[in-house]
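Input record (Table S2, row 332):
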Amino acid sequence: MQRIFSGVQPTGNLHLGNYLGAIRNWVHLQNQYECIFCMVDQHAITVWQDPKELTRNTREVAAGMIAAGIDPDKNVLFNQSMVPAHAQLAWVFNCVARMGWLNRMTQFKEKAGKHKENASVGLFAYPNLMSADILIYKATHVPVGEDQKQHLELARDTAQKFNSDYGTAFFPLPEPLIFGAATRVMSLRDGAKKMSKSDESDYSRINMTDDADTIALKIRKAKTDLFPMPDTVEGLADRPEAANLLGIYAALSDRDKTAVMAQFAGRQFSEFKSELVDLAVSVLGPINAEMKRLMAEPSHIDAVLRKGAERANAIAEPILKDVYDIVGFLRP
Ligand code: TYM
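Output record (tryptophanyl-5'AMP complex):
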């Protein structure tokens, strides 16, 4: 059986990177796989979250997924803390994965920065919880943006070590699914930096909650250079901001970059940007309106997540029982 698991941290605005790198791909995949999509609230608290904001953001990310076209009846949609087996398996993985593996995680180094001693233990052990998220469902495929690749390699290593330590073939080795024209969307202000929720400048990203005027303003202000669109991909080799806008256009229109480049070759970026504004508003506008409508009815979102959690628990609990038997824990 082919099963997908993927998750988003409810830590602030959903942005175009989350949408193009992950959620838009999930919408395509939901017809080919059994899918489980999760608001990973337990990952979120590895850095401080205001409790009220966390609740609101969890609902908003769920609203964003549904508004983008994820069908909550067909797929399992829930928040992580409602399914205890994630944290229970994560403890077992804390005892399987090695310190050396976690020490190599670039995301921990980036997030902890110079204050490593002051980072939470949870932030360090974060990748083990992520491995547990995936493997508690024996998921075979994990669609993510490029920034999650290293964590997925760790999940595979952990599954493999568990299997070999206990002499079993219990866990599958999950495959990353990283595809599309925008697997790494960059900041609109600096083509060397990833678009992220934590960037101080709101002009660096397009939020899924931005209205049409804001989207237009941010794209018009996006950094570019003085040269026109080239006619070959090599022509964008040292023009990261231009390459980023091209990738965004291609992903929003479900085309590849060379086709879009051929359409705009020789034209100025000011012209390209105004077409990008039209495209972005036409794709993101309806999602934004639907998110607003859903957010006006939080009890409906909560009911969707509770139902999703019931379904998730029904899959996860028997897998956790098997893990406990393999490890040798006595069970009630
Ligand atoms: P998170 O919440 O940072 O991001 C959610 C998804 O969006 C993708 N993404 C991007 N893709 C392209 N360009 C960008 N600038 C960009 N920024 C974010 C991410 O790659 C991700 O797919 N650790 C994960 C959450 C997680 C998870 C999991 C994912 C927890 N458990 C299990 C998959 C499976 C994270 O922090 O994603």
